[in-house]
Amino acid sequence: MPIRQRTSAGPKRSALVPSVVAVRADGTTAVGEEARDVVRERGRPPREGMDTFTATKNDIGTRKQYPKAPEHLNNPAKVAEHILRFLVAGAQEAYPGRFDRVVVTVPASFQLTQREDTAKAALESGIGLKAYDLMDEPVAAFLTFAAQRAEGVAAGRYMVLDVGGGTSDVALLSVEPTHRQVQVNVSGTSRYCRLGGSDIDRAIVVEHLLPALGELNGCDPKEWTYTQLASVIIPGLLDTAEELKTKLSRRMAARRTVGSDWSDLEERTSRDVHLEIPKGAALTLPAGSVSMNAEEFACVMAAYLDPDESLPRNGEYYESASIFAPLRELLDRRGWDAQETTLLLAGGTSHTTLLQDALADHLGVIPLAIHGSDHPLAQTEISQGAALQSFSLALDETSPLVVPRSDEALVIETATDPREVIPQGTVVPWPDDPRGRVIPLRLSDGSKSNGLRLSFTRNGVTVQNQVIEVPVDAQDGDSFTLRARMDANQQVALECEFACGARHTFQIDRPWSYVVNPQVARDRILELEADHGDPSATPREKLEIREQLVDLYRAVGHLQKAADSARFVLQRAESDEDYATASNDLANVLWEQGAREEALHALRRAAPRAEAWLLWNLAWRLEQCGRLEEALDAVDTAMAADPDGSSQSLRGRILKGLGRATEAESQFRSALSEFGHPRTASDFDLHWMDYVARQVGDESLRDSIKDSRRRVAQASTTKGVLPEADLPL
């Protein structure tokens, strides 16, 4: 339904409400198009997490906080609450009265805490959710697709690709239509939080607009600081980038529809941009001063459409990831053939001609847009499906149009035969008995001393494996029961009840969905940043958080933030060890940034306060630079304190580089005598031991090293004892 939104040009009614919240000058809150207007009228770039909030849905269910925001907007759930409250008010304005049923959609990859936070935000906004009221977004989009087909939909496999503003959601759906319903199992999901329209906008800014801005203002973009770029310049150019992208995409789609070539297309900016730079001169980008043609747009899009790229590319100011990475990984993991799968497209960015052509070329299947870009209800595929589900539930709350279904049995492994926990084809909620299904088991010998291993699988794939401590009053050989229930969101609740009366409860989060999550490091960054911003955090706790953030920032390519954190730690180092560690961390970041002399300077400055390991690192860096004589001096100094195997290995490498082969051979032999047996060596020493073994041609030692690595890899999988099946089921 169209929602009335106030804008500077007057009221606007649209079914599309941007997920943007902004704080006005008087402290009140604006949502949607009005929030965008508030941001534009400030005359300065938005301060994300302070007075402007965009794409916060990605952070729901995490510990992310916005410590500089007003109290009523200081975490993602509160932002979601304001958006939902705005939608409810808009709907009630259009249709006064009580709503019989409301369905809220979430990404299929949302885990339990994210779903709980969403339900809580809905409740705070006046929406009480019942069974089936929390619906997976790709399932809702599929329902819209199904409703458009008078002949109905066929049973089979469907892949829904929803490319929105800030994320790309992929879902594999196994579909089985019945007389009055469609039973759907979400067989796999992927959510790339840095693969959406806004990420493409950032790429256009960095790769295309920043050079033009520098040239027009007589500046070198390399001279702008990280803070100036990340806080002011890049956010201030995003609307311009979106305008160029949208105009070109629409014209390319129009040309494609009539079979015409689009390579000659070009678009120009239509609005003036004025940026006030802290501690710098103001920058301007006049309307019409910058253009982008179709070829330049295709170059920016290439990283997102590379069929051979499997890993995200991390940059200082934006990340890119190929859309084929989550698609292919999901298909491969579930054993699905793309050409036997119907590919459905949803979301505004999915209408991009370049994306649709790339999918057809590299997957061998023609994608079907649920709504075309010129459809009056374009970009509402998910909300339409939710509306259809809520209508069905309002008529009969026991008869949703779509119900989740398990497409494989969930079993628990035992020392004898696996035992079925949830049958294949189960429709939720399950079972009818609220107490759940009971599986009788028995503690195997050794459980008391080694722990009870509970391993759950589907079709041979482990979905959860945990070891629990056996209660004090329980003994090997005792019977115990496993009780299982599954709710409407496919959350499996499990409870072990032991003969002594003790209980252990736990959950399995949607065991039939294989979830691709490339955002683990970023999720941890969000948690740590929230902890760092907590007013109750002590200086020592903040220091320890910064120490962890250095490596995490490096892992995702945020090198300037990593360097800032390393300097923060360095300035507060209380001991020689802390100072050496922080100096080494800073040197590693500077090295990756290409600032090699600064990196070497950081190591040299710390050398008088450091142990041999930092001198080894200095020697290693000098060797990488080709400054072999200096490297030899540094490693000799390190060896004077500790002539261990790795130091002797590095010295041999340096001597070999200097052409002193005989000395190098002798040094390698000496290094081997220092290492000891591979089974007792660290990963670091194993690396250098293997290097030396290759230099001296010791294949027997290399085999021992490989065997040691295999043993370490296998050790973590053998903990705990499986239960025995107590009675036949």
From TrEMBL:
<dbReference type="Pfam" id="PF00012">
    <property type="entry name" value="HSP70"/>
</dbReference>
<feature type="region of interest" description="Disordered">
    <location>
        <begin position="34"/>
        <end position="54"/>
    </location>
</feature>
<keyword id="KW-0547">Nucleotide-binding</keyword>
<dbReference type="InterPro" id="IPR011990">
    <property type="entry name" value="TPR-like_helical_dom_sf"/>
</dbReference>
<feature type="compositionally biased region" description="Basic and acidic residues">
    <location>
        <begin position="34"/>
        <end position="50"/>
    </location>
</feature>
<comment type="similarity">
    <text>Belongs to the heat shock protein 70 family.</text>
</comment>
<feature type="region of interest" description="Disordered">
    <location>
        <begin position="708"/>
        <end position="729"/>
    </location>
</feature>
<dbReference type="GO" id="GO:0005524">
    <property type="term" value="F:ATP binding"/>
</dbReference>
<dbReference type="GO" id="GO:0140662">
    <property type="term" value="F:ATP-dependent protein folding chaperone"/>
</dbReference>
<dbReference type="InterPro" id="IPR013126">
    <property type="entry name" value="Hsp_70_fam"/>
</dbReference>
<protein>
    <submittedName>
        <fullName>Tetratricopeptide repeat protein</fullName>
    </submittedName>
</protein>
<keyword id="KW-0067">ATP-binding</keyword>
<keyword id="KW-0143">Chaperone</keyword>
<dbReference type="InterPro" id="IPR043129">
    <property type="entry name" value="ATPase_NBD"/>
</dbReference>
